[in-house]
Amino acid sequence: MNRQKSFHNDRPTLYLVATPIGNLDDITYRAVKTLQKVDVVYCEDTRVSGKLLQHYDIRKPLKSYHDFNKELQTEEILRHLEGGDAVALISDAGMPLVSDPGYHVVQAAIEQGCNVVSIPGPSAVLTALTVAGLPPHPFLFYGFLDSKTSKREAQLEALKEREETLVFYESPHRIHKTIASLYKVLGERDLVLARELTKKFEEIIRGTTVSLQDVPDVKGEMVLVVAGNSAAETIEVDMTVLEEVNALIADGQTSKDAIKQVAKRRNLTKNEVYMTYHQSDHKE
Ligand code: SAM
């Protein structure tokens, strides 16, 4: 057991400080005060964070901490902490550790008996989730999917039955491939693409994995929020195969698309659903 009464001990502290994800006004008073009081700031890219600190008129020694030097830098950070220095870790944007470096040094600092204190602030995951208009909880934050199509689709396959709203980070040059994979593996679902959050060109595109397939002009930083699988329960409890096909047709789908979708959701062949539908007296 490791109990940390963060503000009632004299152990050295590693602060995880959130920085803006775009709009520079999105920094907390506490984040600024913390960056002013620590002895040294570790960051991903000293040029990026240098500009940020300059903007708030904070002058502190800046050192790099990223995935490629994390072992070495963790040792250095621990030496600072042992020597009584207060250390802050920031990333290029948002919360450190959230699809960003930091986990390694947090683990090491905890093992070393140091305090680890979060100075919370903006993060793209919660910013996107709250504006998406999809059920905010439960949600599952995945971070980045793999860049290789086969691996990405295997990852999605493992998420297919999850009922939570799914949140992914994605880069603009992979966005269309990823949306294609979402449709291929998860079928038609509500999908929200939130881009350039908190910035001048912020845009929230609400649609489905079908309607967003070839969405044009999507540049910048982006988050995908995908509806969870609500079908499993609804199908079993409420609907027969035929009722489900009819419900989709009533929603505006062609019988062909409806059959395809029901087959996919229920792990049936298209032919099985086709036969059920066409042999029925109750098709609409
Ligand atoms: N630590 C950050 C956080 O707390 O959100 C995330 C860092 S991760 C390396 C960068 C990814 O976060 C981007 O590729 C994008 O998917 C998402 N992101 C960051 N800022 C964003 C913004 N302003 N609008 C939309 N997505 C953003």
C-alpha-based Rg, rounded: 24 Å
Oligomer: single chain
Bound molecules: S-adenosylmethionine
| Unreliable segments of 5+ consecutive residues | none
Q: Proportion of β residues?
A: 15-25%
Number of strands: 10
Tell me the helix content: 25-40%
Put simply, the count of helices is 11
Distance between the termini: 62 Å
Give the key terms:
11 helices; single chain; binds S-adenosylmethionine; 284 residues; 17% strand; alpha/beta; five-stranded mixed sheet
Fold and architecture overview:
The termini are far apart. The protein is 39% helix and 17% strand. A hairpin with a 7-residue loop joins strand 8 (190-195) and strand 9 (203-208). The strands form two sheets. It has a five-stranded parallel beta sheet, with helices on both faces. Strands 6-7-10-8-9 form a five-stranded mixed beta sheet, covered by helices on one side. Helix 9 crosses helix 10 (255-266). The longest helix is centred in the N-terminal third of the chain and has 13 residues, at 70-82. It has 284 residues and is α/β, with parallel strands linked by helices. The relative contact order is 0.11. It has helices spanning 29-37, 46-55, 70-82, 103-111, 124-132, 149-159, 175-186, 231-238, 241-250, 255-266, 270-278, and strands at residues 13-17, 40-43, 62-64, 87-89, 115-119, 139-144, 165-170, 190-195, 203-208, 222-226. The radius of gyration is 24 Å and the shape is elongated. It has eleven helices and ten strands. The mean pLDDT is 94. It binds S-adenosylmethionine (SAM). S-adenosylmethionine binds at residues 21-22, 91, 93-95, 98-100, 123-125, 169-171, 194-199, 221-223.
